[in-house]
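Lab meeting prep.
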Amino acid sequence: MTSRPSFRTTLLAGVLGFTLLAGGAFGQSLQKGRDALIKGDLRTAQIEFRNAVRNDPASAEARAALAQVSLDLGDGDTAEKEARAAIDRGFDKVAGTRMLLRGMLMQNRAREVLREFPIPAGAGPDPLGAQIAAAHAFAQLNLNDREAARKAAAEALRLNPKALEPHLAAAAIGFSEGNRQAAEAAIDQALVIDSNSVDALLRKAGLQFERGEADAAAATLGHLLKTAPAHVPAHILRAEALLRAGKPAEAKTEVDAALRLQPNSAPAAYLRAAMLVQAQDWKPADEIFQRLGSALASFPDGFLLQAIAKRGLNQIELAVDAAQRFVARRPEDPRGAKFLAAIEIERGRPGEATIVLNRFISRGTPDAEIYDLLGRAYAADNRPRESTAALQRASELAPKNAQILARLAASRLAAGDNAGSTQAAEGVLALVPDQPGARQMLAVAALGRGDIATAETELAKLDATVKSGEVGSTLSAAIKLARLDLAGAKIDFEAALKANADSVAARLGLARVAAADGRTADVDRLLAEVLQRDPGNAEAIGNIAGIAGINSPRGQAARQLLERSQAARPTDPRLAVALANLYNAAGEPNRALSILDTEALRRPGLGPSLPLARAQAYAAANRWSDAEIASRAALAESPDNIFARRQLAALLLRNSDPAGAEGLVREGLRTQPGSAALQRTLVTLVQQIRGLDAALGVADELAKQTNMQPNARLLRGELLMSAQRPVDAARAFTTAYNEAPSAQLALARATAFRTAGQTNDANGALNAWLQREPRNPEVLDALSQLDIQAGRLPDAERKLNVVLESAPNNGVALNNLAWILGERGGASTPKARELAQRAYFLMPSAESADTLGWILTRDGNAPLALPLLRAAATPRGRQAPNPSIVYHLAYALKETGDKPEAQRLLETLLVANTGFPERAEAEKLLNALKAGN
C-alpha cells in the first residue's frame, strides 16, 4: 500500500524553521543543538537537546526541540514521549499534538491513535481537530481502510482548510488510490499554504521524477534543501534526478553530502556504487556492494548492478550468481533476463540462455531485444529453425532494425530457407544499401536455390576488398563448383585457405571438390581438419557420420574420428547425438547411453535431439520405462515437436497405455490442429488400438472440424490406401473432392486411380483440377511424369516448363526436363546440362547425379561425369543400383579408357538384370568391348 511509506517520508522530514527554535536561548546545550541543526548534524543536535532537557526538565521548548529532531531521525518513541512532555509543560497544543501523533504512527500504532485521539465534534474551524483528523486518515490508510481514511481527510479539510496536514493527508489518499492527479493537486495546495514544507516538496519532486521531469525534480529538491540541508533522502533523490538529467558531477556532490550527513546511509552508498558502475569503475563499485551485504537486496536494481560490476571484473561465476538473484526477485524485469542470457551466450552455454529467455517470455512482456537474444542463443546452439522463429518475432517488433533483419537472413539461410533469407537480406539492403553482409547472403541464398547467375550478379556488386575476403573468395569458388568447374573451384578454395589458414569454409569447399573428383582420402582428411577447428560443425559431422555408417576400413576410420572428437568435446550436443545415433544404428545402445546419459547432457534447455536419441537408445536396450521418460523430456524441451510427440505416443502404446497414447496425440492436435502428421498419427494409432473401422470413424470426425482442414479430408482415403484398398480410397478421395475441391485431393485421387490400374481416371482427375487452375505446378508435375511414363515427351516438356515458371527450384522437375532435353540431344544439350547442374545442386541424389553424368558423357565430358556416375551407381544399403545407371557408368568408363572395368560391370549387369530399357545398348557395348573396340 502506498500510503504508509508516503507518511513515513513525511515523518522523516524535519521542519527546521519551526518557531520554537527561533526564540531566546535556553542554555548552552540548546544553542549547541540549534548550531548542529544548521550544520545538518541531526545526531549531535539530538544529544544536545537531550542535555538541555536534562539540565532543565521543565523546559517545554527543549522537549519540543528534542521531539522534532527525533522525528527527523526516525526515533518515534522519543518523539512521542517528548511531545507529550512538552504539551504537559505548556507547549502549543496543536504543534505538540502533531509531533505526538507522528511519533505514534512512526511506531505503527495506528489503532492506538484512533482509540486515544477521537476526532472532536464541532462545526469548526478547529486547528487541533484538523491535526487529529489528518492523523486518522494516515492511520486508516495504514490499516488498509481507504473509505474511513477518505472520510477522515475530508473532515480534516473541513475543520481547517488552511492547515498543511489535511492537504498532505488528501495527497496520501490520492497516492493510495493510484490517482496521481488528485495527489498532486493536494500537494500543490499544501505548497500554497507553506512553500517551504519539506513533506510537500519531497512529494512534489517524487511526482516530477516519476514523470521523467528530472530537471524540475532537481530544482524542487534544491529548494527543499535550502530549508532542510540535512535531509538525506532529499539529497539522494536529487542525485538520482541529476543523473537522469545527465549531470553526473552535480549528482556526485549530492551523494557526497548525503554520506557526510549519514556515513552509514545504505541508499547513499548504493547510489555512489551505481554511479561508479555507470562510469565502468568496477572495483570500487564492487567493494561498496560487498559492504552493503544483505542490505543490497532491499534495492530493486541492487543485484543487477552487482552482476554488471562482477562481469566488468571478469568474475563471471559471481556475475551469473548475482544476475540469477536479480531474475529470481524480479522475474518480470526484462533487463535481468537479457543480462543473464548474454553472459550465458558469452561463456558458451547458449542452451542455458534459451531457458532464461523462454522463462521470461512465458511470464513477462518480451520486446524485440529479448527475441533477438533468443534467436542468437538458438543459433549458437545450432537450432536454426528455433532461431528463425525467434528472430522473425524480433523483426516484427522492430521492422526497421537492420541488424535483426541481417541475423534473420543468416538464420533462414542456415535453416535451408533460401527464399526467406533472400527476402530478409533485401530488407536489410532497403534500410542500409551498402551493407556487404546482406549482399553476400543474397549471393549465398541464390546459390543455395541453384540460381547460379543471380549469385554471380550479387557477388559482382561487392567491392574488391569484400570479394577478396574469406567469405567473398569462398563464395566465388562455390559458384565455380556449382558450374562443375572443379579445377577452378579447387584453385580458388586453396587460395582462400592460403589467405585464411584456419578457414573452415575453404576446407569444406575443398572437401566438396574432392568428393566430386572421387578423392575420398582428401575428403576424409579435410573433414577431420574441419572438426579439429570447429568440433560442432554440422556439415562435417553429418558427412563423417554418413561415412562412418559404411562397413569398410574408411567407415571405421571415420567412426574413430567421430569418437575422438566427441571425447575431446563431451558436452557438445551435436557430436554426442551424431555418435549416439551411429551406435544405435550399429546395435550398440549401451555405448550410445554411455555418451548421452551424463549430467552435462541431461541439463534442460539443450533441445529435443538429445533426449530423443536417449529414448531411442533406451528402447533399443529394452529399457522401455526409461525410453518413455526420455521422450517426455524431449517433448518438454519442444512441446510443438511432432516427432517427439509421436515417439512418446508409440512408447505409451508399447507400455500398455493406449488411452494415454491417444490422449497425447489429441492434446497435440489442440495446439496444432492443422498438422497433417499428427492427424495421420492419430488415425493410425486408433487403427492399431481399435481397428480400421474405428480409425475411419475418427477420420470422419476430424474431417468435419473446420480447424483441421484441409489435411483432414485426406485421412479416410489414406487409411484405405494403407489397407491396400485403392478402389475404395479413390472413392473416398472423390467424395471429399466433390465436397471441397483442392489440388491435394486431385493428386490423391490420381494416385489412388493409378494404383488401382485406372490410368485414364488418374489423368482425368488431374486434368479436372487443371480446368480450375491451369498452371498449378504440383498437378502439372504429376501429369508430366505420367506423360514421361507413356513416352509423351513433348507433352511432358511443355508441362515442366510451366511448372518451372512458378516453381523454379523444383528439383524433380528440373531433373526430368534435363533428362528430356538430354535425350533429344543436339542444340538442346547446353540447356539440358544447365538444368541438370541446377537439379543436382538442389537435390543431390543418385537420379540427379545420373542425369547430369549421362548428359556430360554423351557431350564428350566423360572424365567430368565419372565421379557423378560412380556415386550414382554406389549401392544404398541392400538396394542394388539402378541397372540403367550402371550401364551409363560402364559407358563412361569405356570413354575414359578403362575398358576392362567397363566390361566387368556390363557382364555382371547383364547376368543380374534380364530386362531394363537400355539392355540392348548394354549388350551391344559389351560385344564391342569384347571385340577390342
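Slide two material, second protein:
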Amino acid sequence: MFFSFKYLSVLVIASLFLLLGACQQETFEKGQLSIIEGLKPADQYFVGRNYPNIGEGDISYKKAVSQALKTIKKRNNNTPWTIEGPHNIGGRINCIAIHSTNANIIYIGTPAAGIFKTTNGGTTWTQQFINQGSMAIGALVINPLNPNILYAGTGDKALSSFTYLGRGLYKSTDGGNTWTNLGLENTGVISKIVVNPNDTQQIFVGTAGNIYTQDNNRGVYKSNDGGITWTNTLYLGPTSGIGDLIMHPTNPSILFATGRNRFRSSLISIVNGPAARIYRSIDGGTTWDTLTNGLPQGPQGKITLAIAKNNPSIVYANYCDTTMNYSGFYKSTNGGNSWQFVSQDPQMSLGGFGWYFGEIRVDPNNDNKIYWMGVDLFVSNDGGDNWQLNAPEWWQYDVHADKHDLQFISSNSYLLATDGGLYKTTTSGGNSAGSWNYISQIPITQFYRVAYNQFSPNDYFGGAQDNGSLQGNATGLSVWQRYFGGDGFKPIFHPQDPSIFFTQTQNGYVHVTYDGGNNYDPMTSIIADVERCNWNSPYKLSSHNPNHMYFCSYRVHKTTDIQFPAFTPISNDLTNGTANIHHTISAFDESPLQQGKLFVGTSDARIWTTQNDGSSWTQINTSLPSRYVSSIKASPNNPNAVFVSYWGYRDNDTTAYIYYSDNNGSTWTNIAGNGLPQFAINSIWVLPGGNDSSLLVANDGGVYQTADRGTTWSRVGNNMPIIPVFELDYNPTTKRIMAGTFAMSLQTIPLDSLFITKPLVNASVGNTSISATISISPNPAHDVIYIIQSSQQLTTATLYDLNANKVANIVLSKPGKYSINTSHLAEGIYIVLLKQGQQTHTQKIVVKH
C-alpha cells in the first residue's frame, strides 16, 4: 500500500502548532524566579509521568537502571529483536564530535540511543556506548592531543519535561569501543565538556543538574588529574545549572560559562531566572566573575556563547528572554569586559521553547561569520548585524527543524545536528535543498505509537516525535515514507475499506482520509480546539462496528458515522474537574468481547468503566495508586477482566505499577512480580486465546513478559539495550510483536519465540512406568493439586512455572495421596515433573482460582 504525501498544508499546520505550543503561558513571580506554566514540545505528555509529585524521580529511575543492568543477560531466549526502521527518517541528535585529523571519523550523541560512530563520513555507522546505565548523551569531546580519546557527558541536554538523566562523565581511550566512568554520577545532565589543549589532564565539565530536584550537584566542575577527582568551582544554586561553557583558544586560563535556571514539576516549569548570566574566569576556573557591562539584567532564559578563533577578544552571546523567545545577539570585542547589543532579527524563531536549542558557532577561519541554531539555521557574515537562512526552511523537510549542534570540517563544510538526524554541507550551506545531504542512516526515530494495517500487512506503521506518521519495514530501511507531519501518534486503519484510515497529531487532532492518503480532513478539531486534550489523546475504532469511533478529551466522545463524523459526548468530565491542562483522559479501551463496555484512565489517577456505552459510568480506582494512568487494556479473553498500568517515579516508591482485575474493577491484584524492573510501564499487550496469564509490557527499560500473570517476569529478546519502549502491538500477518521504541526506531520479534515452556530435563515424556502408577487431579486445579501414587516407589514431584522456576516440591515415599498447595499461585499454566530414578513424566496443569 502506497501513501502519497500531498497533504502538505496539514503538515505545515500541524508542525506549526508544535512551534507555537499547545498551551497558553502564564508568567508570575515567585521570589526571584519566573515560572512558566505553559509546556512546550511533548512536555504535557511527559510531565504526567510524575503525577502527583516530581522532585525525586531520578532516584528510582537509577535504581531501575541498576536492576536492569544486573539482569539484562537473563533474558527469556536467544531471539533477537529486528530493527524494522526507519533509517532515512531520523530522530534528535544532541551533539557531534569530529576526529581532528580524519574528518571521515564522526561521533554523534543521541538523547536515548547512545553514541554512533562512522569511519567513512556517514556512509555506515556503528552504535557505541550500549548498556552503560544511561544511553542519553548530552556532550561529546575528543581529546585535542589524542583523537582516540573521547569524553562523553551523559544526560539529555535538551532538558525537556522528562529528561533522561545521566550517570556522569565517561572516557574512551580506544575510539569509543570501551568506556570508563569518571564520576559526577549525581549531576543529572552534563551539557558541556572542555579539555585544556595544553594539559589534557585538566578537564572542565558544565552540568545542568537534575531538573527534578533541588540540590548542589550542579555547576562547573574541574579536574586536574584526568577525572580522578573533581572540584565544583562555580555553583549557582539548587535549581541552577550550566548552559554553556567555552575556553579561550590560546589562553586556557580564560573560560566563559552561562548559568540557567531549570526545574520541572507536574505544575510548573522554571526555565529562566537570576542565575542566567555570563560568568568569566581568568585563573583557570578557580574563581568566577559575573559579566554585566552592556548585558541584559533581571531574569533571563537560556544564554549561549561562541568565541572567535583568530581574535579571541571577540566573544558572542545569544539570549532568549523569560518567555523563552529570542531576545537579542550581543558582542564583546575586549574579552567580555564590555558588550554591545548587535541585532534581534524577528525571523530567527525559537518558537517559545528557547531552552531546547539556540546555540551559536563561529567559523574557524572567519571571526565575523556566525551560525545561529533555532527552529531554522541562520548565518551572519558581518558579525551579527544581518542574518539570512543557511538551510531550507523547516517546513520543507529538506533539512529537519530544530537544530542542536554544528561542527566544522572546514569553512565550507560542516555538520548539522537536528531533531531529524545529521546533515552535511560542502558548499557553505545556503538555503537550497541541494546544498545539504542527510548522512545519518541510523535507527534513532522516537516512536510514540505503532499499528498494523491489514491492507499493507508486511509494513509497519507508527507515529514519531517531531517526525510524523511513518510506514515501512526492514527490507527498505532507507525508504520509509512519511505520510503525515507534526508529532505523529496512533495510526488507525479501517478493517474493511483500504481507502479509509486515520492519523493523529499532538493534542488531539485526528485527521481522516477517504481516498487512500491523497487528501485528509480534520475530524476532531472542533473538540481539540476548545477542550482539554492529552498530548497523546486516546481514540479508537469500535471492535464491534468499525464505523463507530471513540475520542477522548477530558470526557469521552463518540460518532456513529466516520464518513460524516458528528461527535457526541457520552460522559461527563471524568477527571477531577479542574480546568488545568494536565487533567485529561490518558488511556482508553473497549472490550473486544462485549460491545459498549468501555474502560477509561485519566492523567489524575481515575479509572472508570461503563457497560452500556456511556449511559452510566462507575469509578473503579479504589485502592489503586494516585498516579497518571499510562495504559488500560481490556482482556481479549474475559469480558470482565482488565489490566491497568501507571506512570510515576518517587523516592521510596519505586513500584512498576501494573494491576489486574477479573471482576470489572471491583478488586485489583498487583501483578508486578519478580523480575520486573522498576521502570514506568507504558503499554500492555495480552495474548489472545488464553486465560490472561501471558502478557507483555513495554517500559522505560525495554520489553518484559510473563506467562503466569505477573508472578515472574523475564526480559524479551537478546539484543535490545536499556531504552524506553512506548507501545506494543501485534502484526498477525508476519506473526511478530511490534515495539515502538523512543530511542531506536520500530523493532519486532516473533511471537512464537515468547511464552515458551523451557525444557525442564532431558528425559522422555510420558513414561508409562511412572504415569501408569500415578494420577494427578484436578485439572484445572484451584487451591490444591492431589497426587495419588499406587506403587511402592520413591518419587519426587516438582511444580514449575513456565519460566522454569521451581514453585513447589514434595517426596512421594510410599503409596498414598499427596497434595501441593496452589492457593497462593497466580492463575496460569504450570508443569508437574515426576521423577523415579532416571525415569520422568511431565504433565501440564492449569491453576485457576
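Talking points for slide two:
The chain has a mean pLDDT of 88.
The chain is about 5% helix and 35% strand.
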